[in-house]
User: What shape does this take?
Amino acid sequence: MNGMSLTWPGTPAARMRKRLALLVAVMALVAATVGLPGTAQAKTVSHSKLAALTIPVVAPFTGVDAVLGPKYATACLAATEEINLVGGISGHQINCKTVDTRGDPADAVPAVGQMYATTKNIAFVIGCTSDEASTVVPVFGSHGTVSFCMTGESEFDAVKFPYFFRLVPPDAADAVAMVAIAKNKGFNKIALAFGNDAGSQTFVAPAEAAIAKVKSMSIVSNQTLDISATTFQTEAQSIVSAHPDAILMEALGAAGVALLSEIYQLNGSKMIPVIGTSAMIDPTFFAGIIKAVGTQTFISSFDADNQVSTGATAAYPLFKRLVLAQKGRVKGVGNFSSLLSANGTVHLYDGINLAALAMVMSGSTSGAKYKADILKIANGVPGAKVVTSYKAGVAALKAHKKIRYQGVGGFYSFDAFQTSFGAFEDTKFTATGSTVNVATLSAKELNSL
Assistant: This one.
């Protein structure tokens, strides 16, 4: 099954018509699925029957953003392995199920409809990227399904969806972090190169605004990449001719490899420094680009902003063991060690633990009943005991203690719109494809942009 990421072509009016058409499709789906078997199964699960629960991983598994789905699926398999080993959620075993959105809102809507029509006992949903979140999050909410989405879209910054939780900052904050990294490195002439998919385009305007606030910085080239293309000679030549100090970019999969390979060739076999988004901390991208330009050349010239602390939390050793144990079970992942710092894998693993503990705390698998406990366990309450695993959390709850979860990504603190902001870091690849964080970006640095 092959698909293409949605491109928003033409004028603002044309884009608005496209969005309205998708909204109509969403509303039709909501109306059509009300009352279907599986629509709200999590609300009616009987603990006496100990029915298995399912966590759908709703994300791109094919199409140009197909690198994202396997990261999220690995998080699900790793987290549920521990949950099941210690007895499940109040006796309910947990299964993972992939739902391919192809990275396109038009494909995501019917895929989610099929999910509800055929899947019993949905516990909650993870995944949903910026490619499709705007169309599927309202559907999840209409069915009372808690969702943990990896989306940076600005529409979730000011509108509250009661069943929606976001464990990463908006793309606007990501873009500011990228500019902060460039500023810290003394880069002034900046080229932008972002894919034409909805997820990548959300970085552009915030990056432009942040660059405008730095007196010494300017944008010398601004390229929109057709990520379904196989060559980028025109865009690469425009970037090279502009002589930038650095390139800020997001182009997932083969597109990123193709663009940087062509820039390298046109620039006399020299890399221009690149600052990528956290989505580019990807084993497939790493494997492709080192073949084109060489390992040392690439790793010395590439940084990415990220929102996780790798190896520094008490939850990390268990997470590492569980993630590496999934090798061979998930297709589309090259070097599994790179997932140990991939924000999608890290934060969704933590999200699953938060939701599972909330179910235990509330004594219910109904999203309407346990979602409030997600906030209590994440944000913390007075006298709460810090726990760093699902097993430890269940033990504390059975001992009638209040708990606060500290995950692989640290503590989570949700705002009024149920978004959790974490610290940003400057991350680099190592020669083996793993990653290391070389700097932490302070709130002062980010607030200055």
The first helix runs from residue 12 to 33. Residues 172-306+432-447 form a domain with the Rossmann fold fold (CATH 3.40.50.2300). The chain has a mean pLDDT of 87.
